[in-house]
Amino acid sequence: MKDELSGLRRDYTLGELKREELLSDPIEQFELWLKQVIDLGLKDPTAMTVATVDATGQPSQRIVLLKQLDARGFVFYTNYASKKAQDIGQNAKVSLHFPWHALERQVKVCGVAEKVSAAESLKYFSSRPEESQLAAWASHQSHPVESRTLLMSQFQRMKEKFKSGKIPLPDFWGGYRIIPTEIEFWQGGSHRLHDRFVYQKDDDGRWDIQRLAP
């Protein structure tokens, strides 16, 4: 297997990224790339890796879906008792990664996480399918569960409990907004000479753009 892995490689030839093509605002640049991914019909275009670090310095990663994006930052939703939420509670610095392999592109975001308002969480929670709302109540995310049978039993109990009227927002569930301080755009290039540009926010809140060596 070791020899097989070392031989797996390909060249990146779909395009290049030029400094003059970049928008001055990285959020707008991200939105442009995201729209291109969506327009191509790629699966899970909003899937992103969220990397956190716990109190011991151990990094942890998982894939979630980007659910909101504006000038303030990138928003995802989770159980506030989950592993990622526990990590954020101790170290709010977070990194996001969007792997768009079909376009030979990736985007890395570094920033600080903060909880979104209860009103924002409620608005999004109410837009979810009823089964997803019930699942948020049924799952004690990141904690041990004896079996899937028990998990489904908890789901059925929640379904019975909330069979009449709207399902309320759990007080242990909501969103995080990652306020970016650095955003890097990567476009694959031939001979491993990839194009990398990083936007970094200065003390005055302006974005500085630099090309990085691949």
TrEMBL record:
Residues 173-214 form the Pyridoxine 5'-phosphate oxidase dimerisation C-terminal domain. FMN binds at residues 62-67, 77-78, 83-84, 106, 141-142, 186, 196. Pathway: Cofactor metabolism; pyridoxal 5'-phosphate salvage; pyridoxal 5'-phosphate from pyridoxamine 5'-phosphate: step 1/1; Cofactor metabolism; pyridoxal 5'-phosphate salvage; pyridoxal 5'-phosphate from pyridoxine 5'-phosphate: step 1/1. Substrate binds at residues 67, 124, 128, 132, 192-194. Pfam families: PNP_phzG_C, PNPOx_N. It catalyses: pyridoxamine 5'-phosphate + O2 + H2O = pyridoxal 5'-phosphate + H2O2 + NH4(+); pyridoxine 5'-phosphate + O2 = pyridoxal 5'-phosphate + H2O2. Residues 39-159 form the Pyridoxamine 5'-phosphate oxidase N-terminal domain. Its EC number is 1.4.3.5. Coiled coil: none annotated. SUPFAM superfamilies: FMN-binding split barrel (SSF50475). Binds 1 FMN per subunit. Keywords: Flavoprotein, FMN, Oxidoreductase, Pyridoxine biosynthesis. Its cofactor is FMN. The keyword Oxidoreductase applies. The keyword Flavoprotein applies. Belongs to the pyridoxamine 5'-phosphate oxidase family. Homodimer. Catalyzes the oxidation of either pyridoxine 5'-phosphate (PNP) or pyridoxamine 5'-phosphate (PMP) into pyridoxal 5'-phosphate (PLP). This is Pyridoxine/pyridoxamine 5'-phosphate oxidase. It comes from Sessilibacter corallicola. The lineage of its organism: Bacteria, Pseudomonadati, Pseudomonadota, Gammaproteobacteria, Cellvibrionales. The gene is pdxH.
